[in-house]
Structures are given as structure tokens and as C-alpha cells.
Amino acid sequence: MSEKSAPKPHFHGHRERLRTRFAEGGRQALADYEMLELLLFRSIPRRDTKQLAKDLIARFGSLADVLTAPANQLCEVRGIQEATANDLALVRAAAEALAQGNVAQKEVLSSWSDVVSYCRAVMAYDAVEAFRVLFLDKKNRLLRDEVLQSGTVDHTPVYPREVVKRALELGASAMILVHNHPSGDPTPSRADIEMTGTIITAASALGVSVHDHIIVGREGHASLRALGLMHAE
Q1: What is the share, in percent, of the chain residues with pLDDT greater than 70?
Q2: Coil/strand/helix, residue 121
Q3: Which residues touch 32 (CB under 8 Å, ≥6 apart)?
Q4: What is the pLDDT of residues 125-157, one digit of tens each?
Q5: Which residues partner with 217 through β-bridges?
Q6: What is the layout of strands, in order, in the sheet containing 220-223?
Q7: Quick check: 84 pLDDT over 70?
Q8: For residues 51 and 174, what is the distance between their CA atoms, to the nearest angstrom?
Q9: Complete DSSP assignment for 83-101
Q10: Which among 17, 125, 218, 225 has the fewest CB atoms less than 10 Å away?
Q11: Distance between CA 227 and CA 150 in Å, rounded?
């Protein structure tokens, strides 16, 4: 039998049904594993990816966890090759770019939900702690977004003098501090609160404001300002 006349694999109909459901109902019409199937279709065109999608979510916990998992860990799952891992990383990068676009060139204090969404998109599911700063201009628009330190699963070193020095180098008038808790729980620790106070003191002495310190995790986010924990030392 020629390739042209050969019957289509059984999963082709399933793929078309998923595509139709997504086209008609969007994200809400599909379960997480089905969304992952749609993504895997393009990387693995000649195989049924339903079970693979379920295996990935069983291994990592959720669609978001799969998309943010390191490539070497993804490749430990049978059926995932480096090219597929890279395709999934590209989806995450695109999501981050979209979230950042909603923040750039806006007065961030008037679009706070977009700021929080962006911070969660780029950090909430990371496996290690990182400390980033959103540097703002005089109109509170995003001037620069930089990760200043990365650490371990439960700690990242932060040097207040280096944070303020970088703000002065960029000509920033204000900052929003951001870091993640890989444990998932965004509740600020005593060390988080004390570090924030030290940075506020150092920055205010040089005319730079600290608007907030946002902590993000899988379970949500915490704002030290909203919690009344923004105290200079």
C-alpha cells in the first residue's frame, strides 16, 4: 500500500477534535494535559502524544511546571528529546515576552495586576531562588528589568549596596524588588523583611524610592507593602 493511500493513524482524528475544541472554546475548553498535547503535536507529529502529556504532568505537577522544567529533566521522560524540550522552553519564553509587554511603557503603579502577572510568569515556577529588580524612571515606567542574584532552593544572597549602585547607574528614580520562593509559599520570612528595610534605607539616602517587594510562588504572591512590612532600618 502506498504512503498516499495508507490510512491515517488513529490519533489524527483526536488531534483534529482537540484543535476544533480549542478554536471554538479557547483555553477553558481543554484540560492541562490536552493543552500540552496541542503543544507536543508540532514537535512530535508521528506519534500519539496523549499519554506522553499525561506522563509529563504526572512527573512535574502541572502544565506550568512542565513549561518551566529544566531541559535535562524533561529529557528524562521517555519520549522527550532535546528538540521537544527546546520547543517547550520557547513557549515559556513567549509567555514571558507577552507578560513583559503588558508592563513595558506603562505607569506600573496604575497597572499593578500586570506587574504581578509578569513577576509570576518569569519567576514563580523556578527551581531556585532569584532576586530581580524592576528599575523605574521618574514617571514610574519600566526602565530596566534585571536579575541581580541567583541562589539555591531556599536562599539567594542580596547585597543592598549593589542594588542601589545599579539603580544609580541606570538613572532609576524608583525600584520594585522581586524574588521567588521555590517552596511555593510566598509568605515573607524575617530575613526578607529585614533585607527590604536595609535596601529602603540605603536607597532613600540617595533619592531612590522602593515601591514594594513582591514575593512570588506557585501558591500566589505576597506584597510587603500591602502587608505593612515596608519599614526602613
Answers
A1: 94
A2: helix
A3: 57, 62, 63
A4: 888 899 999 999 999 999 999 999 888 777 788
A5: 220
A6: 142-150, 130-136, 174-180, 209-217, 220-223
A7: yes
A8: 48
A9: HHHHHHHHHHHHHHHHHHH
A10: 17
A11: 25
Radius of gyration of the chain (CA): 22
Decide if 130 is inside a domain.
Answer: yes
Decide: pTM greater than 0.70: yes
Partners of 43 in beta bridges: none
Task: With respect to residue 3, please indicate whether it lies within any of the assigned structural domains.
Answer: no
State which residues form the domain around 35.
11-97
Q: Are residues 116 and 202 in the same domain?
A: yes
- Give 150-153 contacts, CB < 8 A, sequence gap 24+: 152/128, 153/127, 153/128, 153/129, 153/182, 153/183
Residues contacting residue 4 through CB under 8 Å, at least 6 positions apart = none
Asked if residue 118 and residue 213 are part of one domain, the reply reads yes
Tally of CB atoms within 10 A around 34: 18
CA separation for the pair 82, 72 (Å, rounded): 8
Specify the length of the chain in residues.
Answer: 233
| SS3 call for 141 | strand
Helices (H), the chain: 11-25, 32-43, 50-60, 63-68, 71-74, 82-101, 112-123, 160-170, 190-204
By DSSP bridging, strand 174-180 and strand 209-217 are parallel
- Please identify which residue in the block is written with the cell numbers 543592598: 160
Quote the CA–CA distance of 230 and 162 in Å, as a whole number: 19
Given the C-alpha cell 509567555, which residue does it identify?
95
Give the residue among 51, 46, 59 at the shortest CA–CA distance from 10.
46
The answer on 146 and 93 residing in a single domain is no
